[in-house]
Amino acid sequence: MSAQECITAACLQNLFPNVSKYSPDGHFGSKFVTVVVTGGSENQISFEAYQVSNVAMSLQRANILLPTYDAPELGYIRDTTKEQFVPDVFYSSKDKYGNTVTNIGRPLPVEYLLIDMPVAFPIDPTFTFALQSLPSNKLFPIENRQEMGQTQNFEAFANYLSAVGPTNLRTCLSNFHVLAWLAGQVDLPLNANAGSFDELLKAVKADACFGGKSEAQSLVARWAASSSQWATMRTMADSLLGSKFLFIFSVGLSCGAAKKKIPPA
User: Fold this and answer.
1) Which of 20, 26, 189, 260 is the most buried (most CB within 10 A)?
2) How far apart are the first and last CA of the chain?
3) How many CA atoms lie within 13 A of 256 on its CB side?
4) Is the pLDDT of residue 247 over 50?
5) What average pLDDT does range 73-97 have in this prediction?
6) At what angle do helices 219-226 and 195-209 cross, to 10 degrees?
7) Residue 56: closest CA among 27, 13, 25, 19
8) pLDDT of 39-55, one tens digit each?
9) What Gene Ontology cellular-component terms does the record carry (predicted)?
């Protein structure tokens, strides 16, 4: 990780401190982990997880740790100014003779601030994204693709819900893009401000953590059966698709009648 990435990680860890009743101020460290995804020489991706130390969090909180211009692996401790006193920060290293020497942190190698974290994947992963077996025109659109002609709206949601089918409701409501779209809506019965939406997120999280249940036994299915807001959403989707089908059907009948030859009287 570069110095700038370490500072960003420290900022995020400071935003999400770990609650500890044994700490005088009620917090100690953080559980926030930064995962770096990189590509390999064999066209494979690898994952490396890191945290920055509590010292790095303190340096960032005090706004005295800076990145360097020409060496991404080096940070720099601010100099003292009239507006801010900056204490000297030291680190230990080995010189060419093997002796331990103390150096001032100008510059400061970021390897002294990083902590390697284990990263792994479950043996039986639970995927929460859209079914890739569906036709591309039935998948729920991904965010920020309006220029590609893919717009997230209620019609796209209704088409996706119809394509997934009522027996795969957990698949539909576990779709990250669907949840992100619903969270940003204000005019629909089910949105981030609705209490039922928080219950849906808890059900999705529980089903993802404790898999193995059938579709009918999933917590998402139970939530859907008891949510009046979801029932309204289903009714709206069915009405939209039903009216669209009737319109196409009526247009087809009109075209067929126009092509039919009318015998002379």
Assistant:
1) 189
2) 87
3) 6
4) no
5) 91
6) 160
7) 13
8) 877 888 888 999 999 99
9) nucleus
Q: DSSP string spanning the chain?
A: --HHHHHHHHHHHHHSEEE-TTSTTSEEEE---EEEEEE-TTS-EEEEEEEE-HHHHHHHHTT-EEE-SS-TTEEEEPPP-SS------EEEEE-TTS-EEEEESSSEEGGGTEEEE-----SS----S--TTS-TTTSPPPTT-GGGT---SHHHHHHHHHHH-GGGHHHHHT-HHHHHHHHT-SSSSSSTTSHHHHHHHHHHHHHHHS----TTTSHHHHHHHH-HHHHHHHHHHHHHHHHHHHHHHHHHHHHHHHHSPPPP-
How far apart are the C-alpha atoms of 184 and 207, rounded to whole Å? 23
Say whether both 48 and 153 belong to one domain. no
Number of structural domains in the chain: 2
Domain that holds residue 28: 3-117
On the question of pLDDT at 169 being above 50, the answer is yes
d(CA 143, CA 122): 27
Residue 124, in any domain of the structure: no
Distance of CA 91 to the CA centre of its chain: 36
Residues 93 and 190 in one domain: no
Question: Which residue do the tokens 């039986």 mark?
Answer: 124
75 vs 171: CA distance, rounded Å = 45
The backbone torsions φ and ψ at residue 218, rounded to the nearest 5 degrees and listed phi first, read -70, 150
Question: Could you tell me the pLDDT band of residue 190, with boundaries at 50, 70 and 90?
Answer: confident
Residues 8 and 113 placed together within one structural domain of the fold: yes
